[in-house]
Automatic annotation (TrEMBL):
Originating species: Acanthisitta chloris (rifleman)
Name of the molecule in the record: Cyclic nucleotide-gated cation channel beta-1
Domain Cyclic nucleotide-binding: 420-524
Biased composition (Polar residues): 645-663
Stretches that traverse the bilayer: 114-138, 144-167
Pfam families cross-referenced by the UniProt entry: cNMP_binding
Catalytic activity reported: K(+)(in) = K(+)(out); Na(+)(in) = Na(+)(out)
Length: 697
């Protein structure tokens, strides 16, 4: 018994396995058939997902001591300080400073820490450039405050020294297209550079001469030679600022103020050399010496006039040099200021020139004012929203990789959400992002109209659009906002399926991105798998969107030629039964009699069409009037005489109510034709005797 049960169990398992294998083979066969029928069908199997790693076991938290809640005691990792009866979490800056590791190499182009360090170096350089002339010319440096001046001087020297030892030896550089980050190579590159030589000269220890000649500020003049750090800081800061022209204007103004500053120091030195108040031209020593000398320098360099005439030869030569220097310096400053302002407003100037040229063109061809106003509105809104008229002109100078990075940041999130493109090759979507074109639509502008051929897809960047429909075509069906996509099916539809199905109107100002169909076709050539996937998705979308009205119960499209009424089912069944009986029975005889009657009628009246309506055993025949003699076709030959063929009497004309009868040779079938009031109508009746019916039964 045990052996029999084991055998039956194994056979059941084998049968179950065989059934599963048969089922799998059937499914595989269906897939192969589907792929043979439609070559675009690909495997529906998804890539296997990686098995998730097991999470590390979480240690159970230690229970808090009795009588103390978890929220009452601060965490061990949190550093807290008590202030005003409150506990604040804080991270000690000393611990953060200890844990900080200085980078082994510094990128001078993108490292913000290096830009911040350059700011301190430039501040030290400005201290030396502005205050060394003041301390040399004016009596502001005295033995009482000499220690303060020296403290700041040596602090600036320390900044210079740290810049040489710590930062400049860690700057990355490019050699042969490679970014060099090796410590030894970076140090050797700095030591061979011109900047290292200038840095060494600016730190010459001339301060040791203080012990012999005293604290003379002119001995610190080499500190002003660190000008290369100043120009490097300008370049790095302009690359970071969004409105760099503002900084350029401030810097140019500082150049002018510095030239006036140097001139005021020289004027006070000349006055002290001649003697304060010795002549009417020199400074008389009253009031604030720096302010009075600066005022004189402004009047001299800008050549305002109203200055006292120089008396001595030294004063005349000094004044002449001042005038020449002032004219040259002031003209250079004005030219540089003009370049800065011109570069800052170059885009605005281009916008105004384009708008003026367009207005001139419209006035020349006498364009209506309404159209001109819309064109002006487009110019103003486009410039105000984008800051430029065409974004492609700005990005055309960038390489493809950088343009792709910008396009990904702007539009990838929107494009990846389009249902048509989900599952496609990621690189194909990147190529589409580079082909997007920005367009601005004014309020109530038609983005697309119903029935148009769709050749592009739209992505809403800013603004809203409305989809119109309804009986009048003006009802708002839906409002699409920023981030929405429409018109994507038209990119792949073919055979008339790419026509717009509704009107889309801009609701207010709308910024849209457009992807044209020709651009997509050029991209899909390189991605055949994505092309097949898109084709399948487009077919499914078109099928789901094309729902006929008859399925919904509504009235269908009106037919120009109505369909012919179908043959009654009962009559079809009778004819089928007659065919199975081999041509016997009264119905078969009736079919044969009607056929012969049609042939006879064609001979009598001519070739035409007849509509036969059969009710039980009575038929009404309507024949059209005879055609013109030119259109008559020759009469067909007579059919061979049947044993039951009726013998008829022909008449050229029949009167109202007149009856024409015909009987078969065996007197079983009798056919009568009765004329009616209408010329083109006659009543045909066929009678079958009961004797024949009984015999057939």
């Amino acid at each position: 018994e045990h052996v029999g049960s084991a055998t039956s169990l194994s056979s059941a398992i084998i049968n179950t396995r065989l059934q599963e294998l048969v089922k799998l083979f059937k499914e595989r066969t269906e897939k192969v058939k589907e792929k043979l029928i439609d070559p675009d069908v690909t495997s529906d199997e998804e890539s296997p997902l990686a098995s998730p790693g097991k999470p590390a076991p979480v240690a159970a938290p230690e229970p808090p001591p009795e009588g103390e809640l978890e929220g009452d005691k601060p965490s061990r990792d949190d550093h807290c300080c008590e202030m005003l009866c409150c506990i604040f979490k804080c991270q000690p800056w000393l611990d953060r400073l200890k844990n900080y590791q200085f980078p082994s190499s510094i990128d001078p182009l993108t490292n913000l820490m290096y830009v911040l360090w350059l700011f301190f170096v430039v501040m030290a350089w400005n201290w030396n450039c502005w205050l060394i002339p003041v301390r040399w010319a004016f009596p502001y440096q005295t033995p009482a405050n000499i220690h303060c001046w020296l403290l700041v001087d040596y602090l600036c020297d320390l900044i210079y020294l740290l810049d040489i030892l710590v930062f400049q030896t860690r700057l990355q550089f490019i050699q042969g297209g490679d970014i060099i980050t090796d410590k030894k190579a970076m140090k050797e590159n700095y030591l061979r550079s011109r900047r290292f030589k200038m840095d060494v000269v600016c730190l010459l220890p001339l301060d040791f001469f203080y012990f012999k000649v005293g604290v003379n500020p002119l001995l610190r003049f080499p500190r002003c030679l660190k000008y290369m750090a100043f120009f490097e800081f300008n370049n790095r800061l302009e690359a970071l600022l969004t409105k760099a022209y503002i900084y350029r204007v401030i810097r140019t103004t500082a150049y002018l103020l510095y030239s006036l500053h140097i001139n005021s120091c020289l004027y006070y030195w000349a006055s002290a050399y001649e003697g304060l108040g010795s002549t009417t031209w020199v400074y008389d020593g009253e009031g604030n010496s720096y302010i009075r000398c600066y005022y004189w320098a402004v009047k001299t360099l800008i050549t305002i006039g109203g200055l006292p005439d120089p008396k001595t030869l030294f004063e005349i030569v000094f004044q002449l040099l001042n005038y020449f220097t002032g004219i040259f310096a002031f003209s250079v400053m004005i030219g540089q200021m003009r370049d800065v302002v011109g570069a800052a407003t170059a885009g605005q100037t281009y916008y105004r020139s384009c708008m003026d040229s367009t207005i001139k063109y419209m006035n020349f061809y006498k364009i209506p004012k309404t159209v001109q106003n819309r064109v002006k509105t487009w110019y103003e809104y486009t410039w105000r929203s984008q800051g430029m008229l065409d974004e492609s002109e700005l990005l055309v100078q960038l390489p493809d990789k950088m343009r792709l990075d910008i396009a990904i940041d702007v539009n990838y999130n929107i494009m990846s959400k389009v249902a048509l493109f989900q599952g496609c090759d990621r690189q194909m979507i990147f190529d589409m992002l580079k082909r997007l074109r920005s367009v601005v639509y004014l309020p109530n502008d038609y983005v697309c109209k119903k029935g148009e051929i769709g050749r592009e897809m739209y992505i809403i960047q800013a603004g809203q659009v409305q989809v119109l429909g309804g009986p009048d075509g003006k009802s708002v069906l839906v409002t699409l906002k920023a981030g929405s996509v429409f018109g994507e099916i038209s990119l792949l539809a073919a055979g008339g399926g790419n026509r717009r199905t509704a009107n889309v109107v801009a609701h207010g100002f709308a910024n849209l991105f457009i992807l044209e169909k020709k651009d997509l076709n050029e991209i899909l050539v390189h991605y055949p798998e994505s092309q097949k996937l898109l084709r399948r998705k487009a077919k499914k979308m078109l099928k789901s969107n094309s729902k006929p009205k008859d399925e919904k119960g509504g009235p269908g499209d009106p037919l120009i030629i109505p369909s012919k009424t179908g043959t009654p089912k009962l009559f079809k069944a009778a004819l089928a039964a007659t065919g199975r009986m081999g041509g016997k029975g009264p119905l078969a005889q009736l079919r044969w009699r009607l056929k012969e009657l049609k042939e006879m009628q064609a001979v009598q009246v001519g070739v035409g069409r007849m509509t036969v309506r059969l009710c039980s055993t009575r038929c009404q025949v309507s024949s059209p009037p005879p055609p013109a003699p030119e259109s008559l076709s020759p009469s067909p030959p007579k059919s061979p005489v049947h044993q039951r063929s009726p013998v008829t009497s022909h008449k050229a004309q029949s009167h109202l109510g007149q009856e024409i009868s015909s009987e078969s040779s065996d007197h079983i079938v009798t056919i009568r034709v009765i004329s009616t009031a209408q010329e083109d109508e006659e009543i045909l009746t066929a009678e079958i005797s009961e004797k024949e019916e009984k015999e057939d039964k």
